[in-house]
């Protein structure tokens, strides 16, 4: 179902319309909300304000009625019907809160940037064991349904044509999930309960992953971009993230020859106004036209960062939304003359804002023998200088790095060299006396050598994996019809060709950024596009913990089965695992080592590496928290 099928006023979370319902009210989400004129001049910091739809907003009903309210957590807003109060009820009071799994969720994937690297978007629903073993009852299911979901997960159970997931799936709980292209009011693609679903994009379209009912908790998505053409070469792995009121993007470079595109995606039913602020090594930059960007409902807005804040070295971007949440990503494409230096995408980290104790996954490894540079970028966005202490997390414990207690000026970015990290480092613990944001980046320089003549192999197209569900950029609706929003060949399942023969082929470089996070007891996860689309591609998962915990890693394979690995992590340690070749999604949950409750949480990332005759491919993504729980507070009549 597409976002335009939402009914105005429906009590759902922003961008999480009731997926799977048959409603026709409302306008086209890709057209509603004409963009407001952009403000020009320097932006001014705007105080954050609570939104009525984001709080635990109690619906106090007048005329003697009592309401119920739900607070958002995980991208969902609960629904309830207020009962009538007795004649003597003159006031209301809040009762104890209950925590339940979300019943609606939305993720946004930025899609391809204009005229740059094509991408493949993959999404998956959570396996039953994630929902039943770690969270108890699933929304919308009774005891009989819960019992039905305990069947073995090794046998796929794809729904028959025209059948609802609710009726046909024995692996996952009831509910529906869909992939929807931004601005597309006609077509959507149902997400099966037992396999990953992929969509290829070579155009500037976002992809929204929408879940309802039992399909909402644990929903994951990601996109892998692979370009081999001169001028658009490189790889990027990007998580599809939940929309937020505030996002921080740490990465990129203001050097000449680089293109940085800020992509804002809005899966919600209403237009959202966004303010963008940019910091660099010289302080907060003066921006132009960054205070009134309007992202239409169900739409996507793309802006060159250089147009908002020209030439900012070592940038950090903050995005603050008014009127609803948005998803923010920063596409990177860097060249030096005719030499490709790589592409990547900067995603928000696993924390809603600056913090004093962060974990940054170690940057992906550079090819052996290559000339490369790895850094940690840090920004204290407030008015106080930060004193930053850095510790490497390894399988054997914490390793304090020499001379890495660093002072960072208030409101300025600084970079700390990470080239000589201890072997086996999985993450970096970043502690500061004032809140900071951070990310780690790696830049692999082109190998020395003269340009070579191109061969026909450089123009071949790499086929997309066949083990994901067959999908293209022309998704099918519920009746099996397809729409072609971008003019793509609906019969093609290959990554769109981007290579062509050229007189000379120059050695190429590559880059990648991986965002910081805060360990959380909520599950983290990501879909896993097949790394086989990258020449000699392989993937690795790195997991880091600050407090001792037992981490359970669940892999969903291409056949719909799941496998589990259990990691016992001591304080300030980490582990690295190869990603199975047929894995299409991964979820990580934690428990207390003594089994007495939730664990302290982990921060994890997936690194994808490969190479061809021109140079390396490197991509990374921090695993975001998945849509998980919401808090429901009952409002009762006050006792006289």
Word description of this protein:
- This protein is mainly β.
- Helices cover 3% and strands 41% of the residues.
- Mean pLDDT is 76; it is low at 1-90, 135-172 and 455-502.
- Strands 20, 21, 22, 23, 24, 25 and 28 form a 7-stranded antiparallel beta sheet that branches.
Concise summary:
By secondary structure, this protein is mostly beta strands. Helix content is 3%, strand content 41%.
Please specify the SSE layout and strand pairing.
Elements: E1 68-71, E2 92-101, E3 104-109, E4 119-124, H1 128-135, H2 143-148, H3 165-168, E5 175-181, E6 189-190, E7 197-201, E8 207-213, E9 220-229, E10 232-239, E11 246-250, E12 258-266, E13 272-280, E14 283-284, E15 293-295, E16 299-304, H4 305-308, E17 316-322, E18 327-336, E19 339-346, E20 355-361, E21 372-379, E22 386-394, E23 397-408, E24 414-417, E25 427-444, E26 452-453, E27 504-505, E28 510-515, E29 524-527, E30 538-545, E31 549-557, E32 562-569, E33 573-578, E34 583-591, E35 603-612, E36 615-622, E37 629-637
Antiparallel strand pairs: 1-37, 2-37, 3-8, 4-7, 4-9, 5-6, 5-8, 9-10, 11-17, 12-16, 12-18, 13-14, 13-15, 13-17, 18-19, 20-25, 21-24, 21-25, 22-23, 22-25, 25-28, 26-27, 29-34, 30-33, 30-35, 31-32, 31-34, 35-36
Label the overall shape.
globular
Percent helix among the residues? under 10%
End-to-end Cα distance, whole Å, is: 48 Å
Average of per-residue pLDDT values? 76
The main sheet comes to:
7 strands, antiparallel
Q: So how many helices? A: 4
Total number of beta strands? 37
Q: What would you call the structural class?
A: mainly beta
Determine Rg (CA atoms, Å): 24 Å
SS strand fraction:
35-45%
Low-confidence stretches: 1-90, 135-172, 455-502
């Amino acid at each position: 179902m597409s976002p335009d099928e939402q009914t105005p006023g429906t009590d759902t979370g922003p961008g999480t319309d009731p997926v799977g319902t048959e409603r026709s009210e409302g306008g086209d989400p890709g057209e509603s909300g004409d963009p407001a004129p952009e403000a020009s001049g320097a932006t001014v910091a705007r105080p954050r304000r609570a939104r009525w739809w984001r709080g635990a907003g109690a619906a106090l009903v007048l005329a003697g009625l009592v309401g119920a309210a739900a607070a958002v957590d995980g991208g969902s807003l609960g629904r309830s019907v207020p009962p009538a109060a007795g004649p003597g009820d003159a006031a209301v009071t809040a009762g104890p809160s209950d925590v339940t799994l979300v019943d609606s969720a939305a993720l946004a994937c930025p899609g391809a940037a204009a005229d740059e690297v094509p991408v493949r978007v993959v999404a998956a629903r959570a396996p039953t064991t994630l929902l039943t073993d770690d969270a108890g009852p699933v929304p919308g299911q009774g005891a009989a349904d819960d019992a039905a979901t305990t069947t073995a997960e090794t046998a796929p159970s794809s729904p028959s044509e025209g059948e609802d997931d609710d009726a046909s799936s024995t692996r996952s709980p009831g509910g529906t999930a869909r992939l929807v292209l931004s601005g597309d009011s006609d077509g959507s693609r149902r997400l099966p309960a037992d396999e990953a679903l992929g969509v290829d994009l070579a155009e500037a379209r976002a992809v929204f992953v929408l879940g309802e009912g039992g399909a909402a908790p644990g929903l994951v998505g990601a996109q892998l971009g692979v370009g081999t053409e001169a001028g658009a070469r490189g790889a990027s792995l990007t998580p599809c993230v939940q929309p937020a009121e505030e996002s921080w993007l740490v990465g990129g470079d203001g050097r000449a020859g680089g293109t940085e595109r800020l992509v804002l995606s809005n899966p919600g039913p209403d237009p959202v106004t966004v303010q963008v602020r940019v910091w660099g090594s010289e302080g907060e930059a003066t921006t132009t036209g960054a205070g009134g960007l309007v992202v239409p409902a169900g739409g996507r807005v793309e802006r060159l960062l250089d147009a908002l804040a020209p030439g900012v070295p070592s940038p950090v971007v903050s995005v603050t939304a008014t009127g609803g949440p948005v998803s923010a990503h920063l596409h990177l494409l860097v060249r030096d003359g005719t030499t490709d230096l790589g592409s990547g995408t900067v995603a928000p980290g696993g924390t809603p804002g600056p913090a004093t104790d962060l974990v940054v996954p170690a940057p992906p490894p550079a090819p052996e023998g290559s000339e490369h540079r790895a850094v940690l970028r840090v920004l204290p966005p407030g008015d106080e200088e930060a004193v930053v202490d850095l510790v490497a997390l390894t399988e054997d414990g914490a390793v304090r790095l020499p001379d890495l207690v660093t002072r960072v000026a208030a409101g300025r970015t600084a970079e700390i060299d990470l080239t000589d990290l201890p072997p086996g480092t999985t993450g970096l613990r970043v502690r500061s006396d004032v809140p900071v944001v951070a990310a780690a980046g790696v830049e692999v320089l082109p190998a020395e050598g003269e340009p070579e003549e191109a061969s026909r192999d450089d123009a071949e197209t790499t086929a997309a994996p066949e083990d994901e569900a067959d999908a293209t950029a022309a998704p099918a609706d519920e009746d099996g019809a397809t729409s072609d929003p971008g003019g793509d060949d609906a019969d093609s399942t290959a990554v769109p060709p981007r290579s062509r023969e050229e007189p000379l082929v120059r050695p190429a470089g590559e880059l990648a950024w991986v965002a910081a996070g805060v360990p959380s007891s909520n599950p983290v996860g990501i879909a896993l596009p097949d790394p086989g689309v990258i020449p000699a591609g392989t993937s690795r998962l790195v997991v880091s913990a600050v407090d001792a915990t037992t981490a359970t890693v669940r892999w969903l394979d291409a056949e719909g089965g799941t496998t589990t690995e259990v990691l016992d992590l001591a304080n300030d340690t980490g582990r690295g695992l190869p990603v199975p070749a047929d894995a299409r999604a991964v979820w990580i949950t934690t428990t207390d080592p003594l089994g007495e409750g939730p664990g302290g949480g982990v921060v994890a990332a997936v690194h994808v590496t490969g190479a061809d005759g021109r140079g390396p491919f490197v991509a990374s993504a921090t695993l975001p928290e998945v849509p998980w729980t919401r808090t429901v507070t009952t409002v009762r009549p006050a006792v006289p």
